[in-house]
Specification:
single chain; alpha+beta; Calcium-transporting ATPase, cytoplasmic transduction domain A
């Protein structure tokens, strides 16, 4: 069941053999045995042994081991012991560093043991997230980690954070419903993904997939597969093979010369073998390991964990840096850019009305409201709340009625098109009220311009109210559109300067994000990229591997991409001969 967003609740229950009352405890135990524990971690019982043995796979190390065996065969015990000690020390250095990094990661994972609320035997029960199984009905509230890939059964003002999958800074709206087969990951509004979490609202959801079968598990499986050799490892391997070839060639030539000069064959062979031992660079592995370990310690002081020593040199020789956008290049938080009137100029009135709506509402407190409140620097107002109409997925707006000694207002904030549909007039920059029919197209055009500039844009409207009558949904009509709220995710401080320095060092930046292409392009222009070339996930899906290998080095921004496509991009850049 690769995709389940197209399933109705009845079909989903039928496929999983369960119902709306959840599983019995016995059935849950049976399914836990069938599907395994809900974890993406693999068994690492013998990983230490494998990690230690992997230190001996370098051709240089193998050459030294052969040299030690030859020394032993020639009766030179001292050389044998010295060579083996050097090999062991260099291998132990690499093992100690990489094992320590692996232990540090494991220790971090053990700090948190997650639980989730599920229906078992018809009642709500808290169970470890690792024991959740397909067919469980999970009950979610704000702050909960989603324990598996789920189909939403019911929801109330549900917003989740899916930045790990889509790179989207803003919370994602979720609600029950049917979607078309093959809907992209970022647009599956009726699905919840393991690895994301609930920002606000409530929901009940049917767990469809757990563990490595989830989208998050597939990403993890790709990361846990055998790691390809780094450019440094390839270089050392090539150097090792070169040493082997040179040593073998010299041994053959010297042996042939000795035989040609009528030296005893046995003495000639022993002399050639002794020479091969002498030609072997015994200290090379130790020197490499000591230098890389020193680099790892220096990076540890900068709070960087090095899992593979060979990656340090690779890091220094890269020519392309692939980076996510949200939280890496940008701050990963929502910031108010400006509040604008219908002419596109700054408006203190729009800021005040936006702040009243955001600060006084009692429902869903989200990053957008927090950004508006943070941007309002005036003293606290004298307004109090009379009534509130909460946000919902149908209206996509929130209305709050406020009052003070002089004024009574109903203020609406939300998705621009949904705000406009309840407005009969709009207010000009000079306070004049104009029929909406004469200016709606201009407002929509300005909205498109703001969106293309990379801003998340909301609309604000108001209507005079009465202290004697509470504002209701039926009263959300004939309102006055007053302006726009623009929000964005700002780039981190000095990031443009850092990118410029990278370019000076011969390192090019590739932005790979699940975010909107226009937003990504706007950020790239702000960072100093000129005429950035963009490839979207939809275009990537239609492109062959050969075409991608050609196009990837020429592309600056990969936008609206899904997690599995990111791996394909990295692979294409590597095949094109670039170091990342």
């Amino acid at each position: 069941m690769d995709s389940f967003c197209q399933l109705s609740q009845v079909e989903a229950f039928a496929r999983l053999g369960c119902n709306e009352h959840g599983l019995s405890s016995g059935e849950a135990r049976s399914r836990l045995k069938k599907y395994g524990r809900n974890t993406i971690r693999t068994n690492t019982g013998n990983s230490a042994c494998r990690l230690f043995l992997s230190q001996f796979k370098s051709p240089v190390t193998l050459l030294l081991i052969v040299a030690a065996l030859l020394s032993a065969g020639l009766g030179d015990v001292a050389d044998t012991v010295i060579i083996l000690i050097i090999v062991l020390i260099s291998s132990c250095l690499g093992f100690w560093q990489e094992k320590g990094a692996a232990n540090a990661v494991s220790a971090l994972l053990k700090l948190v043991r997650l639980h989730c609320d599920v229906l078992r035997d018809g009642a709500k029960k808290a169970v470890p997230a690792e024991e959740a199984v397909p067919g469980d009905i999970v009950i979610l509230t704000a702050g909960d980690i989603i324990p598996g890939d789920c189909l939403i059964l019911t929801s109330q003002e549900l917003f989740t954070d899916e930045a790990a999958f889509t790179g989207e800074t803003y919370p994602v709206e979720k609600n029950a419903g049917l979607l078309a087969t093959g809907t992209s990951l970022a647009k599956r509004s009726n699905s919840l993904l393991m690895g994301s979490h609930v920002i606000s609202g409530k929901a009940t959801a049917l767990i469809i997939k757990t563990g490595t079968a989830t989208e998050f598990g597939k990403i993890s499986a790709g990361l846990q597969s055998a790691l390809p050799p780094t450019e440094f490892e390839r270089g050392i391997r090539r150097f090792g093979y070169l040493l082997m070839e040179i040593t073998l060639l010299l041994v053959i030539i010297i042996f042939a010369i000795n035989v040609f000069l009528h030296k005893p064959v046995l003495d000639s062979l022993l002399f050639s073998l002794a020479l091969s031992v002498g030609l072997t660079p015994q200290l090379l592995p130790a020197i490499i390991s000591v230098n890389l370990a020193t680099g790892a310690r220096r990076m540890a002081k900068q709070k960087v964990i090095v899992k593979r020593l060979s990656a340090i040199e690779n890091f220094g020789s890269m020519d392309i840096l692939c980076s996510d956008k949200t939280g890496t290049i940008t701050e990963g938080k929502v910031v108010l850019k400006d509040t604008l009137d219908t002419s596109g100029n700054h408006s203190d009135k729009v800021l005040l009305y936006s702040w009243l709506n955001a600060s006084l509402q009692q429902g869903f407190h989200n990053p957008i409201d927090a950004a508006i409140c943070a941007a309002y620097k005036e003293e606290q107002s004298t307004y109090t709340v009379q009534t509130e109409i909460p946000y919902d997925f149908i209206r996509k707006r929130l209305t709050i009625q406020v009052r003070n000694d002089k004024t009574n207002l109903a203020i609406t904030k939300g998705a621009l098109t949904n705000v406009l549909e309840v407005c009969s007039q709009f207010e000009t920059a000079h306070g004049k009220l104009v029929p909406m029919s004469t200016g709606k197209n201009v407002i929509l055009k300005r909205y498109e311009e703001l969106s293309e500039a990379g801003f998340r844009t909301l609309g604000v409207a108001y209507k005079n109210g009465s202290s004697d009558i509470d504002f209701t949904r039926e009263n959300e009509k004939e309102m006055i559109f007053v302006g726009f709220i623009t929000l964005f995710d700002p780039p981190k401080a000095n990031v443009a300067e850092t990118i410029s320095q990278m370019n000076g060092l011969g390192v090019r930046l590739k932005i790979i994000t699940g975010d909107n292409a226009l937003i990504a392009k706007s950020l790239a222009l702000e960072l100093g990229m000129k005429d950035p070339r963009i490839l979207t996930g939809a275009g990537l899906q239609k492109m062959s591997d050969a075409a991608l290998i050609h196009q990837a080095p020429l592309t600056h921004i990969f936008a609206e991409v899904e997690p599995n496509q990111k791996e394909r991009i990295i692979s294409a850049l590597k095949k094109a001969g670039h170091v990342k």
